[in-house]
Design goal:
441 residues, alpha/beta, Urease, subunit C, domain 1, TIM Barrel, 2 domains, 14 helices
């Protein structure tokens, strides 16, 4: 249904510019697309929604990397190196999703929880189970979240446990193809879409990677996987193929459609050139990288090279499901990379110069950057884009206190991104439909 909303908008149309539109009216058409954004004084006619004092309208957040089955272990089990964590904690949990009653317990909490944090688009890894994957897509559609949902494919006899893997490459490709068909049939509108999901190279045979590359070519579906995630994973691929993840994935045809590559903390400058020349983008997961990445992602260098980058939480390797919080982690990580972390090294040679980013760029990655990776018309509130948005309360009774005698717009914006919690988010829209609202006492 068409409607109008009036209030203050904060957004980042470029990585260098914070746009603040005071007292503007957004008009949304019947199909959920924004038809106009104009000053309130220029709007003629009634307004259905008027934001209260202190409320701010922002474009919806785009989480490029979520392991949906790991939601029950969020905030725990982070005491192991990546390869041990997978086999001891994560694979056993994911294997439980063969039980659809367990999936039915987890999926509503996950999708609703992320929507409540302003995450209007999520890119999900499911488990290897077709039933659980279809149920996740159905739950996203039921709650109105824009999503890409992928059945995880993994068949390597050494890189996966016997009790949690596809039986062989052929059956894995067939199951992935059927999942594409089933999800597309579930939602012809395209709000929820399938995505081809080889877990990562250590978990996949050559035949599976080749087959999924062929599936990407024939179906046109997006692809997601992990790339140069940690010392172990990065070196494993070099030892197996003699090249880095980026080169190997390109050879297998997994970068020909829009692809989401998670982590990428060990990219080389040559990898930057490979990815800049493909349809690949990176899901930068700054908090998760602190636990499993063994390195700080060179965000500034990679974006300067022309590679598309957005943000991801990497639930549950990242213990914070808020993408606003990930913006702050991205800024912090970039400062640590620039300044260095080992005080025993001379200050002039300790860090990597020109690595820092600010909150404007971080929020840009969480909105426009993610939209560019996925090829979606969202990420900013302007005519022609879908109305995916959320409202944050600021003021004395919220997490985002304002100090009028001290604050300019940029200070309010930075504090909002750093400090806003789920309790401060009062409304969430996806494609013009209000999908969550919170009563304010």
């Amino acid at each position: 249904m068409a409607f109008t909303i009036r209030g203050t908008i904060m957004q980042t149309p470029t990585a260098e510019h914070l746009q603040v539109l005071q007292d503007h009216v957004v008009t949304v058409s019947d199909d959920g697309v924004i038809s106009s954004v104009v000053p309130g004084s220029a709007h003629e006619g009634s307004v259905e929604v008027t934001l209260a004092e202190g409320e701010i309208l922002l474009p919806g957040l785009i989480d490029l990397h979520v392991h949906a089955p790991q939601w029950p272990q969020l905030g725990s089990r982070l005491d192991k190196p990546l390869e041990d964590w997978l086999f001891e904690h994560t694979f056993p949990l994911e294997a439980r999703f063969a039980d659809l009653s367990f999936a039915a317990e987890v999926w509503p909490s996950l999708v609703g929880g992320l929507l409540g944090l302003g995450t209007t688009t999520a890119v999900y890894y499911s488990s290897i189970h077709p039933g659980a994957t279809q149920a996740l897509a159905a739950e996203c559609l039921r709650q109105g979240q824009r999503a890409f949902v992928g059945r995880v494919a993994m068949d390597h006899l050494e890189g996966t446990p016997e009790w949690y893997r596809d039986s062989d490459a052929r059956s894995a490709v067939e199951a992935s193809h059927q999942s594409i068909v089933d999800i597309e049939a579930l939602d012809p509108s395209g709000l929820v879409r399938p995505i081809i999901t080889p877990r990562f190279i250590p978990a996949c045979s050559d035949a599976l990677l080749e087959g999924l590359g062929e599936l990407a070519a024939s179906s046109g579906a997006l692809v997601q996987t992990h790339c140069s995630e940690s010392d172990w994973e990065h070196q494993y691929v070099i030892e197996r193929y003699g090249v880095t993840d980026s080169v190997a994935l390109e050879r297998f045809g997994l970068l020909q459609t829009p692809s989401v590559l998670a982590h990428a903390g060990h990219l080389t400058p040559d990898d930057d050139l490979v990815l800049a020349g493909t349809n690949a983008g990176i899901a930068h997961c700054p908090l998760s990288n602190s636990y499993f990445g063994n390195a700080v992602f060179p965000l500034r260098r990679v974006t300067d090279a022309g590679v598309k980058v957005g943000l991801g939480t990497d639930i549950a390797g990242g213990a914070d499901p808020s993408l606003l919080a990930q913006c702050a982690y991205a800024v912090t990580g970039s400062r640590m990379l620039e300044d260095g972390v080992n005080s025993a090294v001379d200050a002039e040679s300790r860090g990597l110069v020109s690595s820092r980013v600010d909150m404007i760029k971080a929020f840009y990655l969480a909105t426009v950057g993610g939209a560019d990776v996925l090829g979606l018309p969202v990420g900013i509130l302007e005519a022609g884009r879908a109305f995916d948005a959320f409202v944050v309360r600021t003021g004395d009774q919220t997490s985002v206190r304002r100090w009028p005698e001290l604050d300019d717009d940029e200070a309010v914006f930075e504090r909002l991104v750093r400090l806003a919690r789920a309790s401060d988010i009062v409304s969430v829209w996806v494609n013009g439909t209000e999908v969550q609202t919170r009563q304010v006492s």
